[in-house]
Design brief:
This protein has 490 residues and is an alpha/beta fold. It has 2 domains: 229 residues, Rossmann fold, CATH 3.40.50; 235 residues, Rossmann fold (3-Layer(aba) Sandwich), CATH 3.40.50. The chain contains 18 helices and 21 strands. Strands 12-11-13-14-21-20-19-16-17 form a 9-stranded mixed β-sheet, with helices on both faces. Helix 11 crosses helix 17. The C terminus is likely disordered.
Length: 490
C-alpha cells in the first residue's frame, strides 16, 4: 500500500485547534489499524522555539533526540503512538536559515499545492480548519468567514477536500449545504467540530461525524473496524465520573499563560485518570509567594508542584513553597528547576554551591553547548519512591536544562536526610532526589511530562496524584478524629 498524505491548514483566526484536529485524525486512523506519523510546519523565521519566551510561543516540547519543538508535537504523541524527532517539526527559519523576510506561510502552502499534483488526488488530502462564529446579538451563525478563508486558499491553488468547521453550536444541515455550495466541497465533507468539554473527546466527536469514514473513502483505504476507540471512551468516562477530587498547587512564573505548561497540565490530568480522581490545578504565581506570609492557596492544596523555568525571577517564592511542603509533609513534586530549588531549599543554610552550570561539569564554554537536551538514561535506587513508581531500575527520560546538582556535596547532604534516588548510570549526573521521612517528596532533573499519555499516564504523575489523594484522605480522617462531639463540648 502506498503512503497517503493529509495536509491540514487553518483559517479565519489563529488558535482554532489544528494541532488537536491533526492529532485526533491520527488517533482515528490508528484505530482503523493504520500506522501514522505527523509533522508540524511553522511559518516563523526562528530556527526553533527554544530561544522564544513562553509568553510568545507557549511550551517548548522536547523530543527523544533533543529537538526543541512546537507544543503541538506533544499533542501528536499523546493522541497517537508516534514518537517525534527533529524531523517532525520544520520552520521557515530552519529551511531558509539565512533568509530574512516577512513572517508568512506561503512557502509551505506552495509545497502542499505542488505535492498534491505529484502524488495524485487519491494519495493526498487537504483539510482546512475554519470558524463558523455565532453572533449572539442576532442569534445566528455566520458562514462568510469560512467562505472567505477557503477563497484565499483557492487563490493560491489549494482546494480543500474536507472542512472542519469549529463552532460553539451545532451547524444545521441547511448551513452545511450552503458552505458546501460556496466552498466547492461535497456536503458530507463539511464536518462540524463543536467545542467539547475535554480535548480527549475530539477523536470520538470526529468519529460521530463520520470523519474517519470520509478519510478512508477519499484515500481509497480499507474500512476495517478495529475498535480501538474504546480506550478513548474509557478515558472520557473516567474524566466525567471521577471518584474524588484533589487540588494541586502549581507554582510557577508563567502560570497566567496556560500554554507555557501544556504538557505538565495534561500529565497532571493523566495522573488523575489513573487514580479515578479529578485534578483541580490551583495556579500560584511564584512571585506572589515572595511577599510577607504564605500564599493562602498553599494551605488548601493536597499536593504542590514546582515546574521548570529559566532565570532567577520567582525563585524565592518557589523556595518558600518547597519549604511549606517539606514542613507540612504535603506531597511535593519538583521538575527540572523544581528539583534544583528543592536541593537549594534543603541546603539553604549551608555554604555549598549545590547547583551549578553544566559547563562546570563537562568543561564546555559555548553557551549553546551547555544545554542538556533529549533522552538520557537514569538508574533508580532500590527502596525509593521513584523505583516503586516506575517498577524498574533503569529508565530513559527527556532533558532540557543548563544546571545540575553538584555531586561533590551529595554525601554531606545525605547525612542530613537528603537522598539521591536516581542518577546517570556512570554516576556523573544527579537525576532524582527524595527526602528521608517525608511521605512523598520527589524531584527529577528531567521532564517526565513529555512522555505521559492519557491511556498510559507517566508513573511519577500516577504516584504523585495517588499521594495527593492519600494526603487529602488522611487530613479528613485527622479532622474527624479531632472534632469534639456535642457531649464533649457540654
Amino acid at each position: 500500500m502506498s503512503t497517503k498524505y493529509i495536509f491540514i491548514t487553518g483559517g479565519v483566526v489563529s488558535g482554532l485547534g489544528k494541532g488537536i484536529a491533526a492529532a485526533s485524525i491520527g488517533a482515528l486512523l490508528e484505530a482503523r489499524g493504520f500506522k501514522v506519523t505527523l509533522q508540524k510546519f511553522d511559518p516563523y523565521i526562528n530556527v526553533d522555539p527554544g530561544t522564544m519566551s513562553p509568553f510568545q510561543h507557549g511550551e517548548v516540547f522536547v523530543t527523544d533526540d533533543g529537538a526543541e519543538t512546537d507544543l503541538d508535537l506533544g499533542h501528536y504523541e499523546r493522541f497517537t503512538s508516534m514518537r517525534a524527532t527533529r524531523k517532525n517539526n520544520f520552520t521557515t527559519g530552519r529551511i531558509y536559515l539565512k533568509v530574512i523576510e516577512k513572517e508568512q506561510s506561503l512557502p509551505f502552502l506552495e509545497a502542499i499545492r505542488q505535492f498534491r499534483q505529484e502524488v495524485g488526488r487519491g494519495n493526498a488530502l487537504n483539510i482546512h480548519v475554519t470558524l463558523v462564529p455565532y453572533i449572539k446579538a442576532t442569534d445566528e451563525m455566520k458562514t462568510k468567514p469560512t467562505q472567505h478563508s477557503v477563497q484565499k486558499l483557492r487563490e493560491i491553488g489549494i482546494q480543500p477536500d474536507i472542512l472542519l468547521c469549529r463552532s460553539e453550536r451545532a451547524i444545521p444541515e441547511d448551513m452545511k449545504k450552503k458552505i458546501a455550495l460556496f466552498c466547492n466541497v461535497e456536503e458530507e465533507s463539511v464536518v462540524s467540530a463543536l467545542d467539547v468539554e475535554f480535548i480527549y473527546q475530539v477523536p470520538l466527536a470526529f468519529s460521530r461525524e463520520g470523519l474517519d469514514e470520509i478519510l478512508l473513502d477519499k484515500l481509497h483505504l480499507p474500512h476495517e473496524e478495529i475498535g480501538a476507540l474504546t480506550k478513548w471512551e474509557e478515558i472520557v468516562r473516567k474524566m466525567r465520573h471521577p471518584e474524588d477530587e484533589v487540588r494541586i498547587g502549581f507554582v510557577g512564573k508563567y502560570v497566567e499563560f496556560g500554554d507555557s505548561y501544556k504538557s505538565l497540565n495534561e500529565a497532571l490530568t493523566h495522573g488523575g485518570i489513573a487514580n479515578n480522581v479529578k485534578v483541580r490545578i490551583v495556579y500560584i504565581d511564584s512571585e506572589s509567594l515572595e511577599e510577607e506570609g504564605y500564599h493562602g492557596e498553599l494551605a488548601s492544596v493536597d499536593g504542590i508542584l514546582v515546574g521548570p523555568g529559566f532565570g532567577s525571577r520567582g525563585v524565592e517564592g518557589k523556595l518558600r513553597a518547597i519549604r511549606y511542603a517539606r514542613e507540612k509533609r504535603i506531597p511535593y513534586f519538583g521538575i527540572c528547576l523544581g528539583m534544583q530549588c528543592a536541593t537549594i531549599e534543603f541546603a539553604r543554610k549551608a555554604p555549598y554551591k549545590v547547583i551549578y552550570k553544566l559547563r562546570d561539569l563537562i568543561g564546555v564554554d559555548a553557551l549553546g553547548g551547555t544545554m542538556r537536551l533529549g533522552k538520557y538514561p537514569c538508574a533508580l535506587r532500590e527502596g525509593s519512591i521513584s523505583r516503586a513508581a516506575y517498577g524498574t531500575d533503569l529508565v530513559e527520560e527527556r532533558h532540557r536544562h543548563r544546571y545540575e546538582v553538584n555531586p561533590e556535596y551529595v554525601p554531606t547532604l545525605e547525612e542530613r536526610g537528603f537522598r539521591v534516588t536516581g542518577a546517570s548510570p556512570d554516576g556523573k549526573f544527579v537525576e532524582m532526589i527524595e527526602l528521608e521521612g517525608h511521605p512523598w517528596f520527589v524531584g527529577c532533573q528531567f521532564h517526565p511530562e513529555y512522555k505521559s499519555r492519557p491511556a498510559a499516564p507517566h508513573p511519577l504523575f500516577r504516584s504523585f496524584i495517588a499521594a495527593a489523594r492519600a494526603f487529602k484522605s488522611s487530613n479528613k480522617t485527622t479532622m474527624l478524629v479531632q472534632t469534639p462531639t456535642e457531649a464533649e463540648m457540654v
